[in-house]
Structures are given as C-alpha cells and as structure tokens.
Amino acid sequence: MSEEFDVIVIGAGPAGENVIARAARGGLSTAIVEESLVGGECGYFACIPSKILLRPVELAAETGRTPGLGPGMIDTGAALARRDEVVSNLDDTRAAAALKEVPAQLFRGRGRLAGPKRVEVTLADGGTARLTARHAVVLATGSRPVIPPIPGMAEANPWTSHEATAVRTVPRRLAVLGGGVVACELAQAMHGLGAVETTVLVRGQALLERLEPFAGQFVADSFVTSGIDVRTGARVTRVERRVRNGEVTIHLAGGPPLVADELLVATGRVPASGGLGLDTVGLTPGSPVQVDDSMRAVGVDGGWLYAVSDINGRALLTHMGKYQGRLCGDVIVARAKGEPDDLPAMRDVTTASGVPQVIFTDPQIGAVGLTEAAAREKGYRVRVVEYDMAAVSGAYVREPSYRGRAKAVVDEDRKVLLGVTFVGPGVAELVHSATIAVTAQVPLERLWHAVPSFPTVSEVWLRLLETYGL
C-alpha cells in the first residue's frame, strides 16, 4: 500500500491530534499513525486517570478539615469504576472516530521514517503501508518511563505509571521509588485508595527538588501526617521478587530491606525516539529530536521534519505538547501555502519564558516560570516576595485550617515577574493568572490594577504585591 498526504504525523496523542487538526483546518490532507490507543498515554495511563484517582483523596482530605463534615470515606471500587468510565475502559473507538471528522486518515501500526518525507508503517494486521508526505512529517511519539539499571529491578517487573493508573487491586504495601511529580501524585493516590503501608524512597534530600524548596516540604509534611513513610537519601542496591506477582524485597544501602507487595518506579521519562528511523534522515536514534521554535527539526535537509511534545525534550507536559502541536500545524500550513510563517503565534516562547505546571497532590502545587535559584543562576537581579496563604481571607473561608504559601520572583530591572509558585488546597486554578502575568511580562504597576475578587484565595495576588511595596 502506498499513499501520499500533505502531512503525516506519527503518534496520535494530544500533541499529534492538535497538529492534524490545525493542518486540516488549513486545507491540508493529513494522515496519523498510532500503534497503541488513539488519544495517547495521557488520556489512558497518565494525566487523566491519575487525576481521577487523586480526586476522591483530595476531597476526603478537605472534608476532614472542614467543620460540619466528618472524615471522608473513600469507596475504592467506585473510584476505580469512575477511572474506567473516564478512560473508556481503554477502548479508543470514539477517539478514532473523531479523527474521521478532522478529517484525518488513521493507520494503526508502528510508524518509522524511511528516508526524506517517507514513512513506513508496519500495520496491526501484518501488512505494510508506505506513506509519502508532500510537505511535512511530524514526530509526536511522546516519552517512556525509565527503569534504573539496579540489579534485579527489571526481573522484578516493577510498576510504572502505566500499571499504577490502570490498577485493578490496590496493594496493601506499596514502595515508590522516586521523588518527582509522578512519584508524589501516585503515592498519595494509592495510599488514599488502600495502600496503607506506602513508602516513598527518594534518592535526593527532598521531594520535588526542581521546585521551590518549600513546595516539596509542604507535600512531605502532608505525607507524614497521612501515614506515608518518606525516606530521603535512600539508595536501592538490589531488588528481588522470587515469585511472579509475589512480594518484592528492596535492598537499601545502610539499612534493612523493605518488603512490599508492589514496587512503583517513577524515576523519570525519556523521549520515545528509538526505532523511529531517525538514522535514515541523519539524526541520532534514541535521542531527543532537537527543534527550533517552530518545532522544525534541526539538521534535516529540506526542513520537512518536525517534532512536538516529549520527543523533542523541551517540556515533558501534555499542555506544552498540545501548545507545540497547535503552532506546528499552523507553521506547516503557512509554509505549504507560501504565506508568512513567522507570526507571533507561530513560535514557542513559553518554554523560555514560563512553563506552567500543576502537581495535584494535597496540598496542590502550581508553578510557572523560574524558581529563585534558576533565576539567580541565569544572572537576573531578583527580589523575592512570599506570603502565607492561610492569611488570605478567601483561604480562611475555604478551610479554617488552610495551609499554604505563595512566592513570586521579580526581575528588579524590568519590574516583571520571572516566576510564581503557589502551594495550598485548590491552587491549580490560580496558575493561569500567574502564567499570563509571567508570559506577557505584565509590569507590576499594571498588575496592581488587576483587582482580585473578595473573598477568594486569589486575593493572594494583592498581598504579594503589597508585600513587594506597591
């Protein structure tokens, strides 16, 4: 089978779907290749199901802190059933049907580059499709979890986020290796749903070390209060699981072994660029695909290859992949039609100015832009202001025992925000206001006139600016 399209996308996750939607909107014919589920890892095994599993845990914690409500009781079976509903029981029929409406032609199978503008697809039925792109091929294959090379680890069949978010039976004893976002979110979700003995093994000295230090400390305190055992400076030397699906023994340097029913490994992800035929176009297999700010691959003759989302290594976040997909699709359309391709909306500025992120633990963390340490390392002359979010009227109304903190990093030369971090219940909804302020480089004297409603937690903006001196 040989066919020709204007644009071919390998990977039908959120980023790839956004590319073809914008390309089709511009009148280009599109094809998309997917070897697993249409909708990608995010919709079935990552962002969406993990947040669904965290939601009852969050609400149970809030009801326990709210006068007039008793401690929240979680029905684990109902929570898992809700997860199944949201992920469509891992059935992508509706998602695949939606591609026809774009319109885009779906090829189910494993796609790889086979030279300039050529894609070879090993189809699910065993056949082969050879596709040619008139204008562009876009790589949108996402990332894969890293399993550290610890003796016995691979043989022990540890969980990754894939298995944890698709769990059928919550283990009573769970060990979590890692201290980043995935480790923290899934440790809290599993603990709340029935993993009564949850132990988090952190190689470093704190949780969430890439964020402001107080953020990880708030989460660590919450973990300890709820009964999660957090061990920093932990080094795993060997892992054993003698019987498949039996208990796992984790040997630790300088201490007794830890025995658990399951081991969840959350030590990072790497771009899924292996086996994509990158060598056929002069790129290094297994490495991130370097791109310019229009998502065009660097070092490929003819400028026809693009890479969006995790595979380019810029920011491993779904919303950033979708953002890149939108601008990439628009750039491809413009170049195909010979129209200007350098409009402001056609370049990635967010990666450099302020990538937003939410960690859906209890308490939540919302952050955008640079931390204080990162800003100083880049040479900015900064001033930092912090505020106790519990002192905001809206926070007290929400919960009398509200705990949280806000921090703003100010560029003193330009009087604009470089970064903002919020920690506290429900702060996810504050992040976009911070993202606008950081990305648009709103002068503080102008931001002062953005009046927060009373009594809401967003009043923290006023308090931060007052603390600064406005």
TrEMBL record:
Q: What is this protein called?
A: Oxidoreductase
A biological process term (GO) from this entry: 2-oxoglutarate metabolic process
Task: Name the cofactor(s) required for activity, per the record.
Answer: FAD
Domain FAD/NAD(P)-binding, chain residue ranges per copy: 5-322
Q: Supply the source organism's classification.
A: Bacteria, Bacillati, Actinomycetota, Actinomycetes, Streptosporangiales
Start and end of every Pyridine nucleotide-disulphide oxidoreductase dimerisation domain? 355-461
Record key words, sorted: FAD, Flavoprotein, NAD, Nucleotide-binding
Give the InterPro entries listed for this entry: Class-I_Pyr_Nuc-Dis_Oxidored, FAD/NAD-bd_sf, FAD/NAD-binding_dom, FAD/NAD-linked_Rdtase_dimer_sf, Pyr_nuc-diS_OxRdtase, Pyr_nucl-diS_OxRdtase_dimer
